[in-house]
Specification:
heterodimer; A: alpha/beta; six-stranded mixed sheet; 34% helix; globular; B: 9 helices
């Protein structure tokens, strides 16, 4: 099944030139696709369009068959996990513990289960010693791990990770890789927007190369 | 735009006069005249009033609700609508509602006048008005941080929704809790950003000394003096009529 599908998707900011013209792509729900390309190629813009944060000016983006222009961000958030390139954009609570468990509280999960899930994620991403710390005051690498933990605790059906490895040391990249392998075994798909060649080669079933808002290459690695 | 490139000091003077009149005057007809004047001035300076109204529509709604509540809770004069002994709508209450709404609209429309100059020109205007350099610089940084604060708040709301939480569907209490919850980290984030900016400014050797010179120097022209005389005359007539 297709997790995300775009059809002749065109995008540009109001009063600016068109950044992407008639992009048609589809992403299988259990496939790992890497999106690469130079600075300013449009990788983050494409990621935000796929996640419904930006809306195309023409064409469509469908999430599990549903037009994402007609979906609320919260509905999209229930189906996929999007991690911003800059973790500061995604941290909004007063402690790491609150940050990871925030959405679970609104899903009606009981407090003991929230605590168990939050600690499981904290241990996985080695955040247990930072649980009471304000996320804003953490280092860049720690913030990235908090964002990943907060997204993955919701057990999403699909992931979009925008540059997940910068700021992570080799050991933390290995941990992230293990988490991704585990998700892949559960048939959960992902889009990895990344410059990290090794990370891309380790995980991607397909590599899309973007250049100036156009698809320069689309390589299947199966 | 009828008056392009008006000196920002004149705009500051016009805003000071119009908003002071808006606070001092209590007669609704005169307030209406002041509002009309401030709207005409704002439009003739090229203010994007419709855009501003669109941006402030939530604030305008709150002003309207406060005005209605004021009318209900501060009754006076003849009762227009009542429930037994309780007066719901009175002539005096209605007058006060009008006064409050007109006052707020005068402040908003006169603030729109300032949006027609860029931030750099306004700060230079304040410096040339002999405002201490440190205060002018602080105002400049404050203006710089307003959009950053708004952006952080929007990012936080987007991030919450992307975690599957529909803010529009949660109850009022939870909604208020959520907004209060994110206020602290948003402000913390702005303070941390301001520390980084301060550090970067100092690393470039900048110090907010009053002896600093500026490439931009504002000079009053004949039309600026005419506008200054016009607004002072208008204010005088309104106050001493």
């Amino acid at each position: 099944m297709k997790a995300i599908e775009t059809e002749k998707m065109t995008f540009g900011y109001p009063h600016h030139q068109i950044l992407m013209r008639e992009i048609s792509l589809s992403f299988e729900e259990s496939q790992f696709t890497a999106i690469t390309g130079g600075n300013g190629a449009g990788k983050t813009t494409l990621g935000k369009l796929l996640a419904g944060i930006l809306k195309p000016i023409s064409g469509s983006v469908r999430l599990y068959g549903q037009d994402n222009a007609k979906m609320k961000l919260s509905e999209i958030g229930n189906r996929l996990c999007y991690c911003f390139q800059n973790p500061d954009n995604q941290l909004f609570t007063n402690s790491v513990e609150d940050e990871i468990g925030f959405a679970l509280k609104y899903q009606g999960v009981n407090s003991s289960e929230i605590k168990a899930k939050v600690w499981e994620m904290a241990e996985l991403f080695e955040l247990s010693h930072l649980m009471k710390s304000p996320p804003m005051k953490l280092s860049y690498g720690e913030k990235r791990r908090v964002v990943l933990a907060a997204g993955l605790v919701l057990e999403p059906a699909f992931l979009i990770l925008d540059e997940p490895t910068p700021g992570l040391d080799q050991e933390r990249i290995r941990i992230l890789s293990e988490v991704l392998y585990r998700l892949k075994r559960k048939q959960i798909g992902a889009i990895l927007i990344s410059h990290d060649k090794k990370f891309v080669e380790d995980h991607a079933d397909r590599i899309i190369v973007l250049s100036k808002g156009e698809i320069a290459d689309d390589i299947s690695r199966n | 735009m009828i008056f392009p490139e008006i000196d920002p000091r004149i705009k500051v003077l016009i805003v000071a006069c119009l908003s002071s009149l808006g606070v001092l005057i209590t007669d609704n007809r005169t307030l209406g005249l002041i509002l009309l004047t401030s709207v005409i001035v704002a439009l003739s300076f090229g203010a994007q009033m419709m855009q501003m109204i669109h941006k402030l529509k939530k604030l305008l709604f709150i002003i309207f609700i406060i005005a209605i509540l004021q009318s209900v809770f501060m009754p006076s004069g003849e009762t227009l609508i009542g429930f037994g002994q309780i007066a719901l709508l009175t002539v005096g209450g209605l007058e006060r509602t009008g006064e409050f709404i007109l006052r707020m609209l005068i402040i908003i429309s006169s603030a729109a006048i300032l949006t027609t100059s860029n931030q750099r020109e306004i700060i230079q205007g304040l410096i040339q008005l002999k405002l201490p350099y440190e205060l002018a610089f602080m105002s400049s940084m404050g203006i710089h941080f307003l959009p950053l604060l708004a952006e952080s708040f929007t990012d936080a709301i987007t991030a919450i929704q992307l975690r599957g939480v529909d803010i529009s569907r949660i109850g009022i209490k939870d909604k208020v809790d959520t907004y209060l919850y994110i206020l602290n980290p948003v402000i913390t984030s702005a303070i941390l950003k301001s520390h980084r900016i301060a550090m970067s400014i100092e690393l470039r050797g900048f110090r907010a000394f009053p002896q600093r010179t500026s490439i931009l120097v504002l000079k009053l022209k004949a039309r600026d003096y005419s506008l200054m005389a016009a607004i002072l005359l208008f204010s005088g007539i309104i106050v001493f009529r």
